[in-house]
Design a protein that fits this description.
The complex is a heterodimer. Chain A is 43% helix and 17% strand. By secondary structure, chain A is α/β, with parallel strands linked by helices. Chain A has a single domain, classed as 3-Layer(aba) Sandwich (Rossmann fold), CATH 3.40.50. A 7-stranded parallel beta sheet of chain A has the order 3-2-1-4-5-6-11, sandwiched between helices. A 3-stranded mixed beta sheet of chain A has the order 12-9-14. Chain A has a two-stranded parallel ribbon with strand order 7-10. In chain A, β1, α1 and β2 form a beta-alpha-beta unit. In chain A, α5 runs parallel beside α6. Chain A is elongated and about 85 Å long. Chain A starts with 6 loop residues before the first strand and ends in a 5-residue tail after the last helix. Chain B folds into 2 domains: 92 residues, no CATH class; 243 residues, 3-Layer(aba) Sandwich (Glycerol-3-phosphate (1)-acyltransferase). Chain B starts with a helix and ends in a 7-residue tail after the last helix. By secondary structure, chain B is an alpha/beta fold. Classes of the chains: A alpha/beta, B alpha/beta. Chains A and B meet through β12, α9 and α14 of A and α7, α10, α11, β4 and α12 of B. Chain B: Pfam families: Acyltransferase (PF01553). Chain B: Keywords: Acyltransferase, Transferase.
């Protein structure tokens, strides 16, 4: 069986996923050292949570990362810094730099290292794209019909390419690639979360996407499991079940604003300028067609079943964020009572 | 609980439905009997005395309720209002479930089916034959001929599978990618339980025990000229057969008569079609001559016959990868449907009266 990790390096610790993973690993006494790296230091609250985990302020695009790995004798690397949130990463081109160049540099360091014996990479289900010609559910082997045109999804496709060539060069290091669906929860901050927090949610007129979500806690738990044992391969990670976009908006008590397809980029630019939501064109396509992944391999081969279904995760997000419905659901009940009263008052049709 | 929900909504369509429902059952065995019945129905269109007594009998049975009608009247209205209110509340607060394919059972049963039902019962007066050939549970692949310029035949088959089987089943259709790219239509198709025609989706649905419908002629079939009516086109590449073989589910040939006459396509404007990005742009006697009025389908009389299932579970596991076997089975299904079409056509005297 695979060896338990003793020195773990986690990238992207100032973000939700990396930070919480580092905290979980630090709480495990069998792990000797937990190193967290990022370009910006984690928040005070996150640092407290991380406990004995050490923070190293280093840019993974810098060869210095190789030195960190070799001096600390890191044996497990969890690359959790892939981000689809340009706002938090300092713009789109910066995000791409961090994602792609950072991964290349990190993989180069791992390839050189003699101590690294396990690599976990956080990827995204965005690599499947979203188009009308796609099957209803994607398995790990489904070929994307429409290669994502740019942005985050293209970064992820390129990163997975580099990871594959890395495992060709270092077949002795088992690599776990985790393709996450959109994360949601009461604490995480993503563009998807901000989108649902808008009081009036723009949607594409005439389209209703199927949305699959993963609870933030499940995401951390999956990464933790992948870091603890050798589970090589590519796995889709998502909660069970599906919400329709319109249904999710109604569940959150928001109002939807249908926008005709040609005006969608315009509205996207507006919400970005207004610093409401920064949606990449790829994510907008997702709002047209939706994306659902098959998680059979995760449950059987990887041995993990998410605790929250998509619907439960979404409800937890709504409850945890204290999203107040724009229209009180009790109004509908009152309207029904009024209609019933009218029906009773009507003369009986004998 | 679903019983209680469904019954009141159907109430206003209840009369004619109760009359039309026994008819297909009696006609379930194609042969002399059903033909006589059909000609009888054609002669006295509107059913004549026979139908009136039929309805009288069904009303006679609960005589007690008839006497007490004045009091339950308003409560029935109240029940309907309550039910519609509940439905709207459920919709507005998002308290319903959809499956991985986006199938919204709540919406399909309460909105889609009631919308299609008048077309099915009153306009096309669809008669189903051989409903006993459709398994009541478990996966099965329904293969049908395609016609009519717009896929009304597919929609009517979903109503047939829901209303005329002893146990209502939701037919999950496999549709072309064009459908899912159209705004409005694509979303509606997903909600009604339909998905893209590809092996991955077909096998996922079949192995989940769903009744899957496929129209393998595709655009060649639905967009053929009126002169070629009831001539089956090539049956795709046999992908549907390999999906059924892989899942070991029976193939049910389904022959639809009447759909060819709804929009008789007499010409095709290829240039306009290319401009719009659609496979054909039909010219019918009424479209585009009469404008939107040309979209009203002609009221042809329809027959939907479910044929004897072709069982696939006896083939060995690798059978789906044997192209010769797949081609042979495809031909067998195609022949079966073509012969049934000829037989049904021979028994039909008039496209509009049956």
């Amino acid at each position: 069986m695979s060896e338990a990790p003793s020195v773990v390096l986690v990238t992207g610790v100032s973000r939700f996923l990396g930070g919480h993973l580092a905290a979980r690993l630090a709480a495990d006494p069998s792990i000797e050292r937990v190193l967290g790296v990022d370009t910006t230091p984690p928040s005070r609250e996150m640092r407290r949570r991380m406990g004995r985990a050490e923070f190293v302020r280093v840019d993974i695009r810098n060869p210095l990362i190789g030195k960190v790995i070799s001096t600390a004798k890191v044996d497990t690397v969890v690359h959790a810094s892939l981000s689809g949130n340009p706002g938090a990463s300092g713009g789109r081109s910066m995000m791409m730099e961090m994602n792609v160049i950072g991964t290349m540099q990190l993989l180069a360091a791992c390839q050189r290292s003699e101590t690294v014996r396990r690599l976990v990479v956080k990827s995204t289900s965005a690599v499947y794209g979203a188009s009308r010609r796609d099957p209803a559910t994607f398995t790990e082997t489904t070929e994307p019909k429409a290669i994502p045109p740019g942005g985050y999804a293209k970064d992820a496709v390129e990163i997975e390419g580099y990871v594959r060539s890395f495992s060709r060069r270092r077949p002795d290091i088992p690599v776990t690639t985790l393709r996450f669906v959109n994360l949601i929860g009461p604490r995480i901050d993503t563009s998807f979360v901000r989108y649902f927090s808008l009081p009036v949610v723009p949607v594409v007129l005439g389209y209703d996407a199927r949305v699959q979500l993963l609870h933030e806690e499940d995401a951390v738990a999956v990464l933790e499991r992948a870091a603890a044992q050798d589970l090589p391969g590519v796995f889709n990670v998502g909660g069970a079940g599906v919400l329709m976009l319109s249904q999710a908006i109604r569940r959150a008590g928001r109002l939807s604003l249908p926008i005709p397809q040609p005006a969608v980029p315009l509205v996207g630019r507006f919400t970005r300028r207004a610093r409401l939501v920064d949606f990449s064109p790829e994510q907008m396509r997702l709002l047209n067609f939706g994306r659902v992944v098959d998680t059979t391999k995760l449950r059987t081969e990887f041995g993990f079943t998410p605790r929250w279904t998509t619907v439960q995760a979404f409800d937890d997000f709504v409850a945890g964020r204290n999203l107040r419905p724009v229209i009180d659901p009790a109004t509908w009940g009152k309207a029904q009572d009024a209609a019933l009263a009218v029906a009773r008052a009507l003369p009986s049709r004998a | 609980m679903p019983e209680a929900r469904v019954i009141p909504l159907r109430q206003d369509g209840g009369g004619p439905r109760q009359r039309s429902r026994p008819a297909p059952r009696r006609a379930s065995r194609p042969g002399v009997g059903s033909l006589q019945e059909r000609t009888a129905a054609a002669r006295g269109l509107g059913g004549g005395t026979d139908e009136v007594t039929d309805a009288g009998q069904t009303l006679d049975a609960p005589a007690g309720e008839l006497a007490a009608l004045p009091t339950p009247g308003p409560t029935e209205l109240e029940a309907r209002v309550a039910e519609v209110g509940e439905f709207l509340q459920r919709r507005l607060t998002g308290r319903y479930t959809v499956d991985d394919f986006g199938f919204d059972r709540d919406l399909t049963e309460h909105v889609v089916m009631p919308l299609l039902r008048p077309l099915y019962e009153k306009w096309f007066r669809v008669e189903t034959i051989g409903t006993e050939n459709v398994p009541l549970s478990g996966g099965a692949l329904l293969v049908a001929n395609h016609s009519g310029t717009l896929p009304l035949d597919a929609l009517m088959t979903t109503v047939a599978a829901h209303d005329d089987l002893p146990v209502p089943r939701h037919l999950r259709m496999l549709a072309a990618d064009l459908v899912f790219g159209l705004p409005g239509v694509g979303a509606a198709a997903r909600k009604a339980g339909h998905t893209l025609a590809c092996n991955a989706d077909a096998e996922a649905l079949l192995s989940a025990g769903e009744l899957v419908g496929v129209w393998p002629e595709g655009f060649k079939g639905i967009g053929k000229d009126f002169a070629d009516r009831y001539k089956l086109q090539r049956f795709g590449r046999g992908g549907f057969v390999s999906a059924a073989l892989r899942c070991g589910v029976p193939i049910i040939p389904c022959s639809i008569v009447g759909a060819e006459e709804i929009y008789p396509k007499i010409a095709d404007l290829g240039a306009v079609a290319r401009l719009l990005g659609v496979p054909y742009f039909p010219i019918t006697p009424t479209w585009p001559l009469l404008g939107p009025l040309g979209l009203v389908p002609l009221p042809s009389k329809w027959y939907i016959e479910f044929g004897e299932p072709i069982h696939t579970e006896s083939y060995e596991p690798g059978a789906a990868d044997d192209p010769m076997l797949v081609f042979n089975l495809t031909d067998q299904v195609r022949e079966n449907i073509q012969q049934t079409l000829y037989r049904l056509l021979a028994g039909r005297r008039n496209a509009f009266l049956g």
